[in-house]
Amino acid sequence: MKHYEVEILDAKTKDKLCFLDKVEPNATIGEIKSMFHKSHPQWYPARQSIRLDPKGKSLKDEDVLQQLPVGTTATFYFRDLGAQISWVTVFLTEYTGPLVIYLLFYFRVPFIYTPKYDFTTSKHWVVHLACMCHSFHYVKRLLETLFVHRFSHGTMPLRNIFKNCTYYWGFAAWMAYYINHPLYTPPIYGEQQIRLALIVFLFCQIGNFSIHIALRNLRPPGRFVTLWLFFLPQLGSWLGFTLMTQCLPVAFFTLVGFIQMTVWAKGKHRSYLKEFRDYPPLRSPILPFVL
Amino acid sequence: MSAAAPGTSKAAHGEAGPKKKKGPGALATAYLVIYNVVMTAGWLVIAVGLVRAYLARGSYHGLYYSIEKPLKFFQTGAVLEILHCAVGIVPSSVVLTGFQVMSRVFLTWAVTHSVREVQSEDSVLLFVTAWTITEIIRYSFYTFSLLNHLPYLIKWARYTFFIVLYPMGVTGELLTIYAALPYVQKTGLYSVTLPNKYNFSFDYYTFLILVMVSYIPLFPQLYFHMIRQRKKVLGHTEDYSKIE
Question: What CATH number matches the domain at A4-82, 2.40.128.90, 3.30.470.20, 3.30.1340.30, 3.10.20.90?
């Protein structure tokens, strides 16, 4: 069996960072990353981006050395992705925040509202309902993260956790402040409006959950098709919550979320299309599933 | 804040290295030339208006009123630049351009126009002067770049005047916002209080204070970005003259 030689160069400076000899032809990029990590312990595999071209796309961990367009001396380029954090950690942190923060406002913990309202409860029953819905939503998301989600990448850049948490926690605090405020005004159309909102909310929560289950078992490209189906109930839940609370900050949150989802879906769509162009032999049997 | 728009302009990209993106088409270039010429002319009108008013009155107080209309018109017109980036005929970031333009528009309309009492403040003249000189240089820079005949003087001015104009403009802007604060608080301008049926509140006074605070991290970043751009763009020409 012919062995390969692998050299890894820095994508920016083209410096030779590592030379591996006697690499098995069926070695995966993941295994090569582990070998590279041994000589450069500060770059753990999750933060390595290994490419064929300095400006090219990252190779996947599952890619096999002998199936790549390289000679027996393979040259790869390395880019440091920066400190990484696992997706699970990010999701758990960004979802636990809103859950806890909302409850702080709901129970009117001191220093939020005027002292005479500390630890009082709202006189409007919709406020209690809203708290239950909001908490249910985030508990559900936490449970899904722990038991339902299968993540395609293990990690993301560390700075994302600050970005994401600021977004989720910030909006949660902003919404919760007004909904649980002593001067809160309940919805104009009263019980009718609240009931309709609750139905929309619950319907979308159930819909979202069943799609999550279906999503779990589908891998790309069918996964992309269901992405949009996943977004709609998310949007619907928040529209329901907006209607229920008749609170402008909630409407803003729903709008921003919608814009983000659209941008994200478009980006995913483009990257999937590109993938099929770049790797046709590996993907063609699955092509019929793409709409 | 955006007294001298940082060098993310297409022309700066063109100076620093080979253009990677395709340039705008012939029609887009013609439109952009017209746009930049019109804007140069507009800000020249404002400059002339300021000088004439100063000569007529004999003092530099209250000159805002003599150029109020063209200032509003041409500064607001800069919103088109966001569109240019979005459409792709100018290779700048939509977000960065949007932020710069909207901060100018904010100062023009939401502070100076809305709070009449600050219009006679000298700080207004400070930032209007900074903006006027900066914009005349900037728009003529773009015009010449588009026509591929950029006089070194304009390039030099674009990357040098900001050193004084940027802090000057920022000082004028901050002093103006500060002057507006008591009136905003007294009248509750643009503020919404609870209770209301949308369960929303907004305190413009606090918002203005936050805007002022935001200058602290943002201004140095933008300023030093321009200084780095200056070294990059003007730096190598100095090296050539040394060789000769």
Answer: 3.10.20.90
Report the first-to-last Cα separation within chain A, whole angstroms: 43
Q: Which stretches of chain B sit within 8 Å of chain A by CB?
A: 194-201
- Answer for the pair A240, A253: CB distance below 8 angstroms, yes or no: no
Q: How many CB atoms lie within 10 A of CB A238?
A: 21
Structure tokens at B208: 């203005």
What is A165-195 written as a DSSP string?
Answer: HHHHHHHHHHHHHHHT-TT----TTHHHHHH
Q: Give me B10's structure tokens.
A: 């297409």
| β-pair type (A4-10, A84-86) | unpaired
Query: What is each CA distance from A153 to A52, A276, B85, in whole angstroms?
Result: 20, 19, 33
Please give the residue of chain A at the shortest CA–CA distance from B194.
A183
What's the gap in Å between the CA of A73 and the closest CA on chain B?
A: 31
DSSP B116: G
Residue B188 identity (one-letter amino acid): G
How far does CA B201 lie from the centroid of its chain?
30
Beta carbons of B205 and B191 less than 8 angstroms apart = yes
Q: What are the structural domain ranges in chain A?
A: 4-82, 85-275
Alpha-carbon distance of A178 to A245, in angstroms, equals 9
How far apart CA B87 and CA A73 sit, in angstroms, is 45
- What's the pLDDT tens digit per position in B64-93? 999 999 999 999 999 999 999 999 999 888
CA distance A215 to A225: 10
B227–chain A nearest CA distance, Å: 24
The phi-psi region of residue B188 (left if phi > 0; otherwise alpha if psi is between -120 and 50; otherwise beta) is: left
Question: At residue A151, does pLDDT exceed 80?
Answer: no
Q: Which of B192, B193, B199, B200 is the best mutation test for A, with the most CBs of A within 10 A? A: B199
* Catalytic residue IDs of B: 166, 173
The CA–CA distances, whole Å, from A170 to A264, B8, B61, B208 equal 21, 31, 44, 20
pLDDT band, residue A208 (cuts 50/70/90): confident
In the structure encoding, which two tokens stand for residue A100, read together? Answer: 């806890």
> Using one digit for the tens of pLDDT, what is the confidence trace for A70-83?
888 889 999 999 89
CA–CA dist A124, A120 (Å, integer): 12
Cis peptide before A221 (omega within 30 of 0): yes
**pLDDT of A138 above 50:** yes
For residue B34, the Cα-to-chain-centroid distance in whole angstroms is 19
Residue range B124-182, pLDDT digits in tens: 999 999 999 999 999 999 999 999 999 999 999 999 999 999 999 999 999 999 999 99
- Measured CA to CA, the distance from residue B206 to residue B184 in angstroms comes to 10
Measured between beta carbons, which residues in chain B are less than 8 angstroms from residue A184?
194-195, 199
